[in-house]
Amino acid sequence: MTMQTLLKKHFYNLIKQIVCSTMLFVLSMYSFNIYSQEINKDVQLLERDEWQKEFLNLFDQKRYEDSIKFAIRIVEITEQTYGKENFKLITPLNNLASAYYMVDDFDQSQAIFERCIKLIELNQNIISPELIVPLYGFGLTLNRFEEYAKATNIFERALRINHVNNGFYNLEQLKIHDSLTESYIGLRNFEKANHHQNFQVYVNKNHFGISNPMVDESLTKLAKWYKRSGQIYSEREIHKELLERQSNRNEQNLGQLIETYKNLSFSHRREGMDIYQSLSPLKKALKIINSNTETDLYLKLEVLLDLGDTYSSFGRAESAKKIYLDCWRLIEEDQNIESIVKNQFSKPIKVRNVMIPKQYPIKASDDDNQMYETGYIAIEYSVNTEGNTENIEIIESQPKQLIDKIAISAIRNTIYRPVYIEGIPQEKPNMLIRHEFSYPIKNEENLEPKEKDKPLNNPIA
Question: How crowded is the C-beta side of 409, counted as CA atoms within 13 Å?
Fold first, then answer.
């Protein structure tokens, strides 16, 4: 082997060693970088967990404004760690959107919910159960912006996805039905609003079983809806169903049973047509309370107050006075109830409330472009010992004379439970009410000129 060959071989081995060393160095640096990145990622995720705990803590305390900065940071860390289109962003985005919603920043909330929806559709599919929360949140923002038609479409989609993934009778859908109710109220579609309230009872009966006491809660909620929407007959029918269910149980919840009797009575009292229909449920409730070995004086006080208020609202002042005195006599049976009784009679309480209109004339115009101004009226009056109003006087009214007669009539026909001190009825002077209302104003552009245009006089004609 020649010297030249030996040199070539030596040089080749040297180059080989250098290349191997370089490769080892590069590999070690690469491994170090990966290792460093992994450590950095772990640190970020630990930081995110701490921020998440703080966010949830603040949110649970209803400190929504304070929670927003934590929610923003959680989103930032998640984006840095996983990317801006990663599925792991869904919960952080939902949390941030919810926090903005709770502080009434509906623009921000809506934009983030929309981003969340698109992210889920990109990573999953159009019927992913993950879509339900952001769709629901998005719908809530639309309701707040009074975009009710759009909101119904969003809520209906959330409901379909809920049914596909969770079945027809799951309880998670109930809040969607409530929000759909609000949307349809905004659209003045009370038939569909009723449907979404009724359907919740159907869901509960199928989920728990028809006779299960858990269904009572949904029936009570439905009755409140009918009361709110002025459907007195439908409300009463629900109270009757509740009463039948509660009366037929071996183990009765006395408090719930008495509450149903009271609600049934009040549904008749609101109509103001038949005093006996209103009194009957209360007298039955009183009989049940008195039939117990140990009389629940607190429940008895509630029923007696309703009984007295019913007599008052129908103009039976003397009968009401006897019942109110029975309330005071309960103190003789138990001194612990004294403060509650005194509180119930410490100020006049409306038992028949005639409302002053919030808009006058009540149906001013069908024109959506009609402009309105805010007016107000202040009235002073007294309540006598029988609960009737006296000495009604208008203190202030703007515009003058516009709603004065209507307001005076409303105050005159309102009846109160009078003030009692130590069982003796008292007159209450200097009652003051200030009421704001809207009234239509004429559009100046459409006003006819006071004097019709006519040719100018010509002095030389």
Answer: 6
Residue-wise DSSP of 44-62: HHHHHHHHHHHHHHHHHTT
Name the CATH code of domain 52-269 (choices 1.10.357.10, 1.25.40.10, 1.10.3470.10, 3.40.640.10): 1.25.40.10
Instruction: Give the chain's end-to-end CA distance (angstroms, integer).
Output: 140
Phi/psi of residue 438, nearest 5 degrees: -110, 145
Per-residue pLDDT at 461: 43
Does residue 127 sit in helix, strand or coil? coil
Q: Which of 410, 408, 402, 413 is nearest to 437 (CA)?
A: 402
Query: Is this model's pTM higher than 0.70 or not?
Result: yes
CATH of 371-442, one of 3.40.718.10, 3.40.50.2300, 3.30.2420.10, 3.40.50.300: 3.30.2420.10
* Spatial CA neighbour of 99 closest among 91, 185, 426: 91
Q: In sequence order, what are the beta bridge partners of 7? A: none
Q: Write down the domain spans for the chain.
A: 52-269, 270-344, 371-442
Q: Please name the residues in contact with 327: beta carbons below 8 A apart, sequence gap of 6 or more.
A: 301, 304, 305, 308, 341, 344, 345
For 317-357, write each residue's pLDDT tens digit: 999 999 999 999 999 999 999 999 999 999 999 999 999 99
Q: Which two tokens stand for residue 240?
A: 């009757």
On whether the CB atoms of residues 114 and 135 are closer than 8 A, the answer is no
